[in-house]
Amino acid sequence: MSEFRHLKPAGKAIFTDRYTKKAKELLTTWSKDEKGAFGLVGLPLSKPSISHSGAAFAPGTIRDSLQSYSVYSGEQTFDLTDQVIDFGDLEMHPTDIVESQKRLYEGLLDIYQTEAADNWILLGGDHSVSYSAIKAFKEQYGQVGIIQFDAHHDLRNTEDGGPTNGTPFRRLLEDTIISGENLVQIGIRDFTNAKAYHEYAKEKHVTVYTMGDVQEKGIKSILETEIERLAKRVDYIYLSVDMDVLDQAFAPGCPAIGPGGMDSMTLLQGINLATQYESVKAMDIVEIDPTIDFRNMTSRVAAYVMLEFMKGKKVNKQ
């Protein structure tokens, strides 16, 4: 107890309401043999980005943004009560991209093997982290289906730039870690991809929903159709959420902002719906650069995506 009146540790002298619990309070540091509903890992890699990106800073900013929210869902009239076991961030090599991606794979495989969590939330980083995360996930959990929320196919060739943030799903396909039939891309935007990669997606039997499809069919119909299809083919489903699937008005902190994207409510509804399925077990959130964001708007959406993931899983249990 402090000998000085009204004094608290640095950063702790903030207003508190006795009836309100903040979502950030759900985070608890992992200790050996601890198990829970959710595991959290930061993947702070953004050097493979095609364009300048400070996405390596996003895991911390997203965690901090949880302080903006309470744990109470007024729509469902319940509190989120499950602790989120936070393993921290994996350490990246200061200069070697390939070594960093190897560290992500090795570190996540070690973490998955603890079986500490029923569900996993991974905070990037740029989209290159998904290759390592999904590779490790498959080794631990078996055949995996991917639902990718994204403006881009991320099926670029590796000859022109190596393993960048534009190549993770091509690498997963070429290395036979996933099959095209088990990859669903939602939110692909006009004037954002090359014809060659659209043709490659068709050649590999990737299921592609453009933003026009989302508007016409609705996110609920798309997800119900694809999750039920994937659940018959794979052991588990992994959600990969590239925040640039959102219109630039909702995600100013994405390096690849652009008009014509998804609104935040549609994305949040989609995440909540998807996570009500038992087969959905993991999610990554990528492509936020806090250094160019406005009032952490994009990180706050990402934190809300985490809460919808947790909310969906709680609804599934009831």
Report on this model:
The strands form two sheets. Strands 1-5-2-6-11-10-7-8-9 form a nine-stranded parallel β-sheet, with helices on both faces. The protein has a two-stranded antiparallel sheet with strand order 3-4. The N and C termini lie far apart (42 Å). It has one domain (23-317): Ureohydrolase domain (Arginase, Chain A), CATH 3.40.800.10. The protein is built from nine helices and eleven strands. α8 links the parallel β10 and β11. 33% of the residues lie in helices and 19% in strands. The protein has 318 residues and is of the alpha/beta class. α2 (97-112) packs parallel to α3, α3 (129-141) crosses α4 and α7 (219-231) runs parallel beside α8.
Order of helices and strands: EEHEEEHEHEHEHEHHEHEH
Alpha-carbon distance between the termini?
42 Å
The biggest sheet amounts to:
9 strands, parallel
Strand content: 15-25%
Mean pLDDT: 96
The quaternary state of the protein chains shown equals: single chain
Which overall shape is indicated by the principal axes computed on the Cα atoms?
globular
Query: Helix/strand-derived class?
Result: alpha/beta
Question: Briefly, what CATH class?
Answer: Alpha Beta
Largest sheet strand order: 1-5-2-6-11-10-7-8-9
The CATH architecture name reads 3-Layer(aba) Sandwich
Radius of gyration: 19 Å
The count of DSSP E runs of length 2 or more, i.e. the number of strands, is 11
Number of self-contained structural domains: 1
Number of helices: 9
CATH fold-type name: Arginase, Chain A
- What would you give as the CATH superfamily? Ureohydrolase domain
Task: State the share of residues found in helices, binned by percent.
Answer: 25-40%
The low-confidence runs, each spanning 5 or more residues with pLDDT under 50, are none
